Amino acid sequence: MITKLVLLGATGDLTGRYLLPALAALRAADRLPDGFEVIAAARQALDDGAFQRMAAERLERHAPDVSAAVRADLVRSLRYRRAEMTDPASVSGLLSGIRHPVAVYLALPPGLYATVVTALGTAGLPAGSRIALEKPFGEDLDGAVALNRLLAQVAGAAGEQAVFRVDHVLGLATVQNLLALRLANRVVEPVWNSRHIEQIDILWEEDLGLEGRAGYFDRSGILRDVMQNHMLQVLSLIAMDLPASLDEHALRDRKVDALRSARRLSRDEVTFRTRRARYTRGRLPDPAGGAGREVPAYADEDGIDATRGTETFAEVVLDIDTERWAGTRFLLRAGKALHRRRKQVTVRFLPAESPLSGGAAANELRIGLDGPEDLALQLTGGVPLNPPRPVPVTLSAPPPATGLPAYGRVLLDILSGGSTLSVRGDEAEEAWRVMTPVLTAWQAGLVPLEEYAAGSAGPP
């Protein structure tokens, strides 16, 4: 197992909110190797002590469930180096004297990836090292292809094993459970096809606004931010044919097959199979039941260039051109500043062909991606009248208990040499190919930018 992690962008929000708490969870679970050390790097002029105090404060805020003793133990393993990420010599200097395999984690804006990866190639990484990159992988298809070529040059003979494309959704316990639902459940798989399923909705709805991410989000939009990566990863797990084995290569082969089978939308289809919108002034809900809080229109938020026409809501309807899914619609919907938080997959089964069904709603299987439910099965039951009166019956289960957060699983995979939770290069490219026609048509103005009030259900 790799014992040294070089963390680039160590003073950023991703590190403080997710990566440091994930390392603390791994330390608490005794999953980090002996002698484990983190070299944290950023452009700020800090020393070890100043960075350790910053890390301790962030851990106290974002990892309160981890004991103070464990947090302190992790903090002692942190070393800080100042580095300018756009300077190849500065990046190369971080690796000076390192002779054993190292994991280099790029917790950086995607626009810096090419520069930093090139610098790592020039410096030369010890055999067995890995480069981990956060999503989005490239800003479009051409960028993803170019970055893949660059990574292949730097990785050399190690190939994909030396590269880890991070999509933390793959580390969520609920998403892992989605995979288990299909691989280990003989009840579900026989009906997992268009003969029984009319439509599958993949929803990523948030009741929060920008939360300090305006600089990144306004150049991305909701489609690039979550739909092209998180949501298509979920779609691939739902739509794929089952692999012949649990080997990580076989699993990722099937995921790629599913993405390649997603029919690309024509320019005409984009106009009636997609929607885009952004929020106006409104009131976001309070999860605790209070009055909520007022937020300005997206175009008036600090750091936003309203002329970009960035969307905060997106909806795309896709078809999967395989024998399994011919005739089933896949609806992807994502949005910010909505009236509720809902991240789930809804499987809508075809209604029963029975004179006793009485127009009852079709059965649904709801699979939670981020709580509060893990699985909820809504079935059409009946009241013993003459004739029977259909009524819905819902069976639900809480999310599975888990000892590690999603980023904990991701980091463990990186350090241990696993690749199950990594997005393979051809996966990343296929995901961009699915969404490129949509982005192109939107940029050409073929789909109007609608509006919805913050705190509402979205555009009408």
TrEMBL record:
SUPFAM superfamilies recorded: Glyceraldehyde-3-phosphate dehydrogenase-like, C-terminal domain, NAD(P)-binding Rossmann-fold domains
Top-level division of the source organism's lineage: Bacteria
Q: Which residues form the Glucose-6-phosphate dehydrogenase NAD-binding domain?
A: 6-177
Protein name per its UniProtKB record: Glucose-6-phosphate dehydrogenase
Domain Glucose-6-phosphate dehydrogenase C-terminal span(s) in chain numbering: 179-459
Natural source organism: Planomonospora corallina
Show the Pfam families listed in the entry.
Answer: G6PD_C, G6PD_N
Q: What class of enzyme is it?
A: oxidoreductase
